[in-house]
Amino acid sequence: MPQHDSTRLKAASKYLVVLAALLVFIGWILNTPPGLLGRADAIGYAVCHRIDARSFHIGSRQLPLCARCSSMYLGAVIGLAYQMVFARKRSGTPHWSVIIPLVLFVLAFGIDGSNSYLYLIKETYPDALARLPNLYEPNNTLRLLTGSGMGLGIAAMLFPAFNQTMWKDADDRRVFPDLKSFAPLFGLTLLLDLLVLTENPVVLYPVAFISVGGVLILLMMVYSMIWVMLMRLENEFTRFSQLWLVLAAGFTIAMLQIAAIDLLRFWLTGTWGGFSLS
After folding, report:
1. CB atoms closer than 10 angstroms to residue 90
2. Are the CB atoms for 58 and 198 separated by under 8 Å?
3. What is the band of 130 on the pLDDT scale with cuts at 50, 70, 90?
4. Element (H, E) at 172
């Protein structure tokens, strides 16, 4: 292919990606509940059961994500932001002294989630699994704590993988070279969890939007990485300003996924509300 034709094709692809992103976003906005919290609900609707009793509330208003999902995506955003500041282009996975607590966080998430799901089955179908005991009675505090731990684990693995995929000048050092480097992030996350437990609207309003933003950020990062690999553009970038087209492609695919799940769930349930226990 002649050089000028190749240049035109690349330019056209940029416009197509941007146009696709705009069309998907506008179409989604026009077909979701009104208001900022309504649109946030629609994102949560695609990834979360949104059971009222298992969510935090601003007054009588349920947050867009349940307690576990809110804290998981909040923890992921905090973890990514922390690494952006202190481990900007580092691509090495965390040291084993950090991986061990992260694995424990994931196990705690799995155990609490499984126990909570068993409790949900018993609530919904009283005669089902009656002989199988719960380890303990689940609650939103445990959902919050185990969810945020899982979020930190996701961030600690996704961030170096993203850097390994994108940067030509990636830093080979570990994102967390020792437990000491991880401790401030853990402390900050725990502090935010305690603030969430106050259920103060001043805290819960930003938590609602940050956690929903976390859904978009994680999906966008993953799909951007996939796009880069499909286009064979790995390790081609040196500045964040060069990533806009890749991130736009990732955003478009993320929004398509959210819109498709929203459409399917609404078609099955006929409501934008969460699942009912009755």
Report:
1. 21
2. no
3. low
4. strand 171-174
